[in-house]
Amino acid sequence: MTTGDIKFEALASCGQARTGRLTVRGRTMDTPAFMPVGTYGSVKGVSPAELQEVGAGMILANAYHLHDRPGADVVSALGGLHRFMNWDGPILTDSGGFQVFSMLDVAELDEQGVSFRSPIDGRKLRLGPRESVEMQLALDADVAMVFDHCPPLPADRALLQTSVRRTTRWAAQAADHHIATSKNGQCLFGIVQGGLDLDLRTRSAAGLTEIGFDGYAMGGLSVGEGPEALAAALPRFAPLLPEEHVRYLMGVGRPDDVLLAIAAGFDIFDCVMPTRNGRHGTVFTPAGKVHLKNRRFKESTEPIDPECDCRTCRDGWSTGVLRHLIMASEPLGRSLCSIHNLRYVHREVELAREAINSGTLPELLARRGLSAAANQLS
To answer: Considering the domain 6-271, what is its CATH architecture?
Structure first.
């Protein structure tokens, strides 16, 4: 069993949903929580101070991309990820499994890992369960993820079975290597695979629980299955993860999906969607996504959302000005829209925490048009 410096305390519940407090290596945050993604060690266009202002507690960085550029050894020499990112809160690193398996058309897979060439400079790279652990230890993240096999959906059952077997085998190797080499209290999380198949998900979760990890993640979702299938899967899959540990749903960031995941019992989430959408001028509002490139915003003097408390809306940036900045490819416009989207998601999570604590989560879900999830909690 892995032995990272971690404590998770569940505080209140409403149906399967729960609030809690997560402490890793002395860094504490409230859950549920959304993690902005800083792929190369920064959240694109958003400063650490702005991340604190929108409500971020934990940030995700991508171990594969940082290993490729500038190199895990360089990050280590520059003081580790916290100094590198100028971030005092918890940091989680993705193992690189998702990125590597998206490149299998140009990579070589075997039972020990994957060999491929860097898309940056063509160097030959090797990544497997042990290599992934080593680079995340060098980065000095608070939470490291095991290297997993993440197939896109839809996938046939044979591939999903292979994915579950390989992910479990690699998870055991990663856990053994982490126990033997980790000396800094870094936590290691296992990743459940199995597509939309409940039986395979159950087997995967049982295999990882037997190995023993500091936390557990549900991977391989939001990879092509569609929002309806995701919504149906979440309440079936969340209870498979041990309730005494933090439950992480990987790659989910659409506001409605985050609320559904919270209702199902997941605790932490990550996604590039809020900032990626923002950089292209697509912003979140109570009425849904709005595309600022639409001509109807050309002379608009209104903010994105008059009720929003983000810096962008609060400081009086109109949708007309934001549209111009996006159309002109001005970095300021991308940053302002990203800040709004991040605040929108974090505010929804904060409202969900308040609703769980007060026993009113069904009402919040109903107001968001998520009646099916609300009925399950009523």
So the answer is: Alpha-Beta Barrel (3.20)
94 catalytic, yes or no?
yes
Q: From CA 368, how far away is CA 238, in angstroms rounded?
A: 21
What is the pLDDT, as a whole number, of residue 192? 98
Percent of the chain, pLDDT > 90?
84
The question of whether 270 is a catalytic residue gets the answer yes
φ/ψ region of 79 (left if φ > 0, alpha if ψ in -120 to 50, else beta) reads left
The first and second tokens of residue 82, run together, are 């916290």
> Which candidate, 345, 5, 346, places its Cα nearest to that of 144?
5
Q: Is the pLDDT of residue 168 over 80?
A: yes
Helix (H) / strand (E) element for 314: namely: helix 311-314
Q: What tokens appear for 245 in the block?
A: 């540990």
How much is the pLDDT for 374?
Answer: 66
Domain coordinates in residue numbering, the chain: 6-271, 278-367
- Identified catalytic residue from 68, 142, 257, 270: 270
What Å distances lie between residue 372 and 211, 362, 375, CA to CA?
35, 10, 5
From 94, 142, 257, 267, the catalytic residue: 94
